[in-house]
UniProtKB/TrEMBL annotation:
PANTHER family, alphabetized: 4-HYDROXYBENZOYL-COA THIOESTERASE FAMILY MEMBER, NOVEL THIOESTERASE SUPERFAMILY DOMAIN AND SAPOSIN A-TYPE DOMAIN CONTAINING PROTEIN (0610012H03RIK)
Keyword Coiled coil appears in the UniProt entry: no
GO molecular function terms attached to this record: hydrolase activity
Protein name: Acyl-CoA thioesterase
Keyword annotations of the record: Hydrolase
Entries under InterPro entries matching the protein: 4-hydroxybenzoyl-CoA_TE, HotDog_dom_sf
Family recorded in the similarity comment: Belongs to the 4-hydroxybenzoyl-CoA thioesterase family.
Source organism of this protein record: Pseudodonghicola flavimaris
UniProt-listed Enzyme Commission number(s): 3.1.2.-
Keyword check for Zinc-finger: no
Gene3D superfamilies: Hotdog Thioesterase
Amino acid sequence: MNLRYLTPLTAEEQLAHGLSAPQPLAIADRVRFSELDTQNHVNNKAYMDWFERARVEHMFQVWRRFFVDLPRPRVAVHSATIRYLKEMKENESYIVTSRAESFRTSSIVLDQQIWSGDLRATLKLVAVMQTPDGKGRYPVPEALRAHMIEVEGARADA
């Protein structure tokens, strides 16, 4: 099966390319020369760029429909913890994934992964939703909470 780049992958495509389980959002791409360091390994900043693109796509492709009749919140990254598991090199194809792991009143913890045959890196990111003016917290809508539990396997934290 050919790997489609820059387009959300189906569950079947994800499994066919080595992911351990389908994710709500998975997008494939290829390592570019400009993403390499002096030792021809992917630069750490490139991983962060890939994770950020997946997070934004996740919000637009999967979650946006839950805000159709609501003001759009600001989303601020509170913290992120990355774990590098195995190096990557030029021209390697990879899949970056994103799913909600848990949520609270106005924050969501994302579990993100990068796969290239096997798991290469992970990111845990805490995103805080704010009112459009940025002056207050924005509660996660009930429909989005239900989606995260039922579809993404997230849990509600106290």
